Description:
This protein is an all-beta fold. The protein is 0% helix and 40% strand.
Amino acid sequence: MTRGCGKHHDLTVISLEDESGAIDVFDQGACGKTTSPLRAPMLASGDRVDLFVHVVSRTDKLGGSPEVFALWIERVQE
């Protein structure tokens, strides 16, 4: 898929869940701003991670919901 950046990339959605709720986080692959060596496709279901994200608030007359983009992904060392 090439969407806007002119090079092939994979958009991956991470469904993040903790005790406060759940939200989808987008890893935009080669076109995104994720600078960590770990990419979302390398994760497995149930992996514990630390994320640094950029939240974009999209509000309109219908309400809207925020979009969350990964900037850094790191596995939690247990």
